[in-house]
Design brief:
The protein is built from 15 helices and 16 strands. The protein has about 400 residues and is α/β, with parallel strands linked by helices. It folds into 3 domains: about 5-140, Rossmann fold (3-Layer(aba) Sandwich), CATH 3.40.50.2300; about 170-320, Rossmann fold (3-Layer(aba) Sandwich); about 320-390, Helicase, Ruva Protein, domain 3 (Orthogonal Bundle), CATH 1.10.8.60. The strands form 5 sheets. Strands 2-1-3-4-5 form a 5-stranded parallel β-sheet, with helices on both faces. The protein has a 5-stranded parallel β-sheet with strand order 7-10-13-6-14. α4 (about 90-100) links the parallel β4 and β5. The longest helix has about 30 residues, at about 110-145.
C-alpha cells in the first residue's frame, strides 16, 4: 500500500541483530517507510527533534527506562504514534506501557514482526489522514477569503491555487471559460485579496456598451469633445486608477479600441477624448473572455500583438458539468441566499430534486443554476422543493 508521503519511523532496539531484522522487514514491507534504527536511548532522544511519525521502542533498555523514553516522546509531540515491544507478557508491564501513552504493545514472539507491520500500516494511514485533515483545515481558513467561490471539487481548488499565486502581484490576468462560469467573481476575488483592495474595482462589460459610447466610457472625454459632450467625463480607466479594471468579454472589443488598449497596457497612460494630456495610470488589468482568442486572431477580429500581451497569467474556469458535487453545494448556497434576501422561510430540495439537478448538463453554467434554484424556490408551494418544481430553459 502506498501513502501520500514518506512515513518517518524510529526504531529503538538495544539488540542490534533484532533491530536490523526489524528495520529490514519494515523497509521491505513498504517503500514509503523511512526507517532509522537506534540501539540506545540517548542517541534516540537527541534525534527526537526530527519528529518521527511513528516510534517503535523496546520496553527494557540498558541506558534508560523505556517508559521514560515514552514519556519524553509524548511530551515532545503527542501526535507521534508509539509502539512498545517487550518479551514481558505480564499484565503489569502491559498496563504500565499503556498508562505512559503507548498506542500499541507487542510481545516479542514469532508473530511480533507480522503484528508490528500490521500496526505500522494502521498508524501510517492515520498519519496520512491527519495530514489531509490539516490541509483541509488550512483550505477552510484560506477559503474564508474566497467565500464567493463556492465548491470543493478538484478543478475549483486548482482555480483557488492559481488565484493565490497571482493575487499579490500586478501581472495582467486573463480569465477564460464558458459564459456563466463566474469570471467576474474570480476577478473581484483577485482584487479584494490584493494590495489594491482598498482602491476601486471597476468592472466593464465590453460587449454591453454601445459602439458609439464605448470610447468615452473607457477613456473619458473633455467638454465639447463631440456633439453631446456638454460636461467633462472621467473614463473607467481613470476611475480605476490605483485599483483594478476588469474588462469582461474582451474578445468582443472593436479593433480600433484594441489598438488603444494595447497602447495603454504598454505605456500605462490614457488620454480623454478631446484632450492631448496623458494621465499616468497605476492600475491592474484583469480581462476575461468566453471566446477562443486565437481563433479570433485567425479570423482577423483580434490583434495578434494584443493577444500575446494578454497572456500574462491565464486562469481557465471549468464548466459546471465538470465540477462533480459542486452542483449540490451551489444549489444549497443559492437557495439559502435567495430565501434570506427575500425573507422567505427556509426551504430544502428533496433527494430526487437534487438528483435532477445533478443529471442536467448546465449549458448556462453557474448563472443558469442560480436562476433555476430561485425559480424553483418561488414555484414551490411548500418548504420542500420537489423535482416537479425544477424547470430548465429550452
Amino acid at each position: 500500500m502506498s501513502f501520500s508521503r514518506s512515513i518517518r519511523i524510529f526504531v529503538l532496539e538495544d539488540d542490534p541483530i533484532f533491530g536490523m531484522t526489524l528495520k529490514k522487514a519494515i523497509e521491505e514491507d513498504n517503500s514509503a517507510y523511512d526507517v532509522t534504527l537506534f540501539t540506545n536511548g540517548q542517541d534516540f532522544l537527541q534525534e527526537l527533534h526530527l519528529n518521527p511519525d511513528i516510534v517503535s521502542l523496546d520496553y527494557y533498555l540498558p541506558d534508560v527506562n523505556g517508559v521514560e523514553v515514552l514519556d519524553k516522546v509524548k511530551h515532545h509531540n503527542s501526535e507521534i504514534r508509539t509502539i512498545v515491544m517487550s518479551g514481558q507478557e505480564t499484565a503489569e508491564v502491559v498496563v504500565d506501557a499503556y498508562n505512559h501513552g503507548a498506542d500499541k504493545y507487542i510481545i516479542k514472539n514469532d508473530k511480533a514482526i507480522v503484528e508490528l507491520l500490521r500496526s505500522l500500516k494502521t498508524f501510517s494511514e492515520n498519519v496520512n489522514l491527519r495530514q489531509e485533515v490539516e490541509k483541509l483545515r488550512e483550505q477552510i481558513m484560506d477559503r474564508s477569503r474566497y467565500d464567493k467561490i463556492i465548491g470543493d471539487s478538484k478543478p475549483v481548488l486548482q482555480v483557488l491555487k492559481l488565484i493565490q499565486k497571482v493575487e499579490k502581484s500586478n501581472i495582467l490576468v486573463l480569465i477564460t471559460g464558458e459564459s456563466g462560469t463566474g469570471k467576474d467573481v474570480v476577478a473581484s476575488t483577485i482584487h479584494y485579496n490584493s494590495p489594491r483592495k482598498r482602491k476601486p474595482f471597476v468592472a466593464v462589460n465590453v460587449a454591453a456598451i454601445p459602439e458609439d459610447l464605448i470610447e468615452s466610457e473607457l477613456f473619458g472625454h473633455e467638454k465639447g469633445a463631440f456633439t453631446g459632450a456638454i460636461t467633462k467625463r472621467i473614463g473607467k480607466f481613470e476611475e480605476a486608477n490605483g485599483g483594478t479594471i476588469f474588462l469582461d468579454e474582451i474578445g468582443e472589443m472593436d479593433m480600433n479600441l484594441q489598438t488603444k488598449l494595447l497602447r495603454i497596457l504598454q505605456d500605462s497612460k490614457v488620454s480623454r477624448l478631446g484632450s492631448n494630456k496623458e494621465i499616468q495610470l497605476d492600475i491592474r488589468v484583469i480581462a476575461a473572455t468566453n471566446k477562443n482568442l486565437m481563433d479570433r486572431v485567425k479570423e482577423g477580429k483580434f490583434r495578434e500583438d494584443l493577444f500575446y500581451r494578454l497572456q500574462g497569467f491565464l486562469i481557465h474556469l471549468p464548466p459546471l458539468r465538470e465540477r462533480d458535487n459542486d452542483i449540490i453545494l451551489l444549489t444549497n448556497y443559492f437557495l439559502q441566499e435567495f430565501c434570506k434576501s427575500n425573507k422567505m422561510s427556509k426551504r430544502q430540495f428533496t433527494k430526487p430534486a437534487l438528483q435532477k439537478m445533478m443529471d442536467h448538463d448546465w449549458p448556462g453554467n453557474v448563472r443558469e443554476l442560480k436562476s433555476v434554484v430561485e425559480r424553483a424556490a418561488l414555484i414551490s408551494d411548500s418548504e420542500v422543493i420537489s423535482e416537479d418544481d425544477i424547470m430548465f430553459a429550452g
